[in-house]
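Sharing a chain and its predicted structure for anyone who wants a worked example. Both blocks are below, sequence first, tokens second.
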Amino acid sequence: MKNGFLLVLAGLLLSVGLCACSKAQKIAIVDVQAVVNKSEQVQALKKEQEERLQALEQWIKTAQNDVETQELKANKEELLKKYNDELAKKRDEITREYQKKLQEIDKSITDTIKKTAKDKGYGMVISKSIVIMGGDDITADVQEAVK
């Protein structure tokens, strides 16, 4: 109940603040999640990530088979440690590269939102997820520009 009240109060304060600002500048809203979901860059990154994870799964199966074929317990333990270390490195590399590319895409989408808004004469852009009412929705324009 308290959280609901705080949410309504925050929305009210935001709308009052936006009303005061809207006289000075045009306000645009963007459904950022819709832009991200439709982005070809994001789709390509997801596909690439899935392929890399599938390749990693195949590598894990090969490593498991290699460990299982070892007859001596000492050889199994040594080989298992080697593969675990290598697996950790591969996972870290995949995660690091994914995060780097995701940040690049995020910057690209943010820059596109800014450019689209500026070209259309908007002084402020707000995420649609926090707007209850008001603002001009430029999501379709941004999606077209992002592709």
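Comments welcome. The chain has a mean pLDDT of 84.
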